């Protein structure tokens, strides 16, 4: 053991002493030089590895530096965008004038236009066969420097194309999603009131209150409001109490499904008030290794018996299930963001303030 320690001089230095030497070495260097050094190391993967994994120490170090810089100049914003693209497996390049950054994949690209001082001017998104469209939601996220939310939207865009097959097959899946979205939107118009009453559409509409896909945010449907939420909305008009929502997405499937590649609703104003659909013929559909999904914004608790009944009735399996005890769900709801999945329920103590409610008797 002594010979091994002698051969490795780093082990002879204590952690505190090593950190002190690093602090002295880089005390006079600005953050931007440290950032360039880390990026240089990132471009040269460690020996024996093909690429840098998302949890690589260098990537973690770069993320901490990026958060410290807070992206206040053009160069730091560009560096932050390049880091996000590398973290999500996207490619990135900067325009010749240095004020536009492109985050690209095989199926889509995001164009970020910046001013000389680093302020975000515009963000555009382009899917296969479509012209670039301005995404106001992405613009707002970058202007607020909410890079975590921006990164999650990039992940959502990537998930649209996590389908087996070539680029042409993935484009067909995206076309199928567009067709479904158009039909759902047509259905939502069947009970849309003139004043656009959201509560009425949620409770009585054909498809609930539907918000079309914008930029990287998928189409979402608000389909349920509790009696308490309805009352709060009536007492405080415009408060926009958020009910239960689902997102309309598409994902890969182990089996092929016949999905539409064109809208199927031909008459949304049929005599009985129900939409009329075209038959799912070979001309209007295609067998794809994909399936439409309704995903919840947050985990939705449901009993195992209810899940079995739904799967038996519809014949469609429910994916992404995770077993949890009622106790764990109550703790998770109570602690909210402070909840950790590895929290030991057996050794945890929780304190609740109890209030005594005075009872009064009315004598008539």
Automatic annotation (TrEMBL):
Coiled coil residues, start to end: none
Highest taxon of source: Eukaryota
Location relative to the cell: Nucleus
Sorted UniProt keywords: Activator, Nucleus, Transcription, Transcription regulation
InterPro entries: Mediator_complex_subunit_1, Mediator_Med1
Keyword Coiled coil (UniProt): no
GO molecular function list: nuclear retinoic acid receptor binding; nuclear thyroid hormone receptor binding; nuclear vitamin D receptor binding; transcription coregulator activity
Domain Mediator complex subunit Med1: 61-336
Pfam families in the record: Med1 (PF10744)
Entry's Gene Ontology BP terms: cellular response to thyroid hormone stimulus; positive regulation of transcription by RNA polymerase II
A GO CC term attached to the entry: mediator complex
Keyword NAD among record annotations: no
Family: Belongs to the Mediator complex subunit 1 family.
Protein role: Component of the Mediator complex, a coactivator involved in the regulated transcription of nearly all RNA polymerase II-dependent genes. Mediator functions as a bridge to convey information from gene-specific regulatory proteins to the basal RNA polymerase II transcription machinery. Mediator is recruited to promoters by direct interactions with regulatory proteins and serves as a scaffold for the assembly of a functional preinitiation complex with RNA polymerase II and the general transcription factors.
Official protein name in the record: Mediator of RNA polymerase II transcription subunit 1
Organism: Chelydra serpentina (Snapping turtle)
């Amino acid at each position: 053991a002594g010979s091994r320690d002698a051969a490795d001089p780093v082990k002879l230095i204590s952690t505190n002493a090593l950190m002190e030497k690093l602090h002295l070495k880089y005390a006079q260097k600005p953050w931007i030089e440290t950032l360039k050094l880390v990026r240089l190391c990132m471009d040269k993967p460690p020996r024996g590895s093909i690429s840098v994994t998302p949890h690589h120490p260098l990537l973690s170090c770069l993320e901490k530096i990026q958060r410290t810089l807070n992206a206040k100049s053009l160069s730091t914003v560009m560096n932050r965008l390049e880091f996000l693209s590398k973290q999500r497996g996207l490619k990135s390049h900067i325009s010749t004038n240095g004020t536009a950054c492109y985050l690209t994949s095989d199926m889509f690209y995001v164009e970020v236009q910046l001013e000389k001082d680093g302020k975000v001017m515009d963000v555009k998104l382009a899917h296969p066969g479509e012209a670039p469209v301005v995404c106001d939601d992405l613009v707002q996220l970058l202007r607020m420097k909410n890079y975590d939310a921006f990164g999650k939207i990039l992940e959502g865009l990537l998930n649209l194309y996590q389908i087996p097959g070539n680029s042409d097959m993935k484009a067909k899946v995206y076309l199928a999603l567009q067709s479904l979205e158009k039909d759902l939107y047509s259905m939502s118009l069947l009970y849309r009131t003139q004043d656009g009453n959201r509560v009425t559409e949620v409770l009585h509409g054909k498809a609930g209150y539907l918000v079309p896909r914008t930029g990287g945010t998928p189409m979402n449907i608000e389909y349920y409001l509790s009696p308490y939420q309805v009352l709060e909305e009536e007492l405080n008009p415009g408060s926009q109490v958020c009910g239960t929502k689902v997102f309309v997405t598409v994902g890969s499937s182990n089996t092929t499904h016949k999905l539409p590649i064109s809208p199927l609703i031909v008459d949304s104003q049929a005599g009985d008030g129900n939409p009329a659909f075209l038959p799912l013929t070979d001309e209007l559909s295609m067998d794809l290794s994909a399936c439409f999904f309704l995903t919840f914004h947050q985990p939705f608790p449901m009993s195992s018996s209810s899940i079995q009944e739904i799967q038996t009735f519809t014949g469609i399996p429910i994916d992404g299930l995770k077993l949890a005890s009622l106790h764990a769900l109550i703790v998770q709801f109570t602690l909210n963001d402070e909840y950790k999945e590895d929290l030991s329920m057996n050794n945890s103590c929780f304190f609740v303030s109890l209030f005594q409610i005075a009872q009064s008797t009315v004598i008539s």
